[in-house]
Amino acid sequence: MEPTLYGSNEKWWKRDIVWLSRFGLNRPEIGQIYTFIPPNDPESRHIKRITAMDGDIIRPKRGPSFVEVPTGCYWMESDNPNNYYDSRLYGPVSGGLLTARATHIIWPPQRWRTIKAEVFEHSTVPISRRYSLFGINFPW
Fold this sequence. Notes:
The chain is an all-beta fold. Helices cover 3% and strands 35% of the residues. It has one domain (17-115): Umud Fragment, subunit A, CATH 2.10.109. The strands form three sheets. Strands 1, 2, 3, 6, 7, 8 and 9 form a seven-stranded antiparallel sheet that branches. The protein has a three-stranded antiparallel sheet with strand order 5-4-10, with no helix packed on it. It has a two-stranded antiparallel sheet with strand order 11-12. It starts with 16 loop residues before the first strand and ends with a strand.
C-alpha cells in the first residue's frame, strides 16, 4: 500500500507539504487527517487520521482488548500499519490537542491533490458507537 503522506523518512524533495486548515476544528470526522499535540510529548506535532470518535468502542489491533473513546477525544492512527507511534501507543487524544486539518498536498507538484476522508482495512474501526438523543445515550 502506498502511504497517504510522505514524511521525514523521504529525501527533502520527495517529502509532502500539506495545506493545514483550522476551519472545522470543532467538527472532526472519522477518516480526516489532523495535526495535533501528542499527549505524551507536548513539544512535538503529529499528523494522523481519525479512526474513532468519542463514545466509540474499539478493539485495537495492538494494546488493550477494548477501549471506549472518552467524551471529547479521538482515536488517531497512522496510515502506515507498521507505525505504532499513535493512539495505539499513547491512547485517545483530547479534541483540545487538535491543531489543524490537512486538506491538500501542495508539494511536490506531481502529488498535488485533495486529501480525502477515508479509513483503511488495517485501521482500528469502531465495533460499537454510542448515540445521543436529547441527552440520552444509546449504545448502538
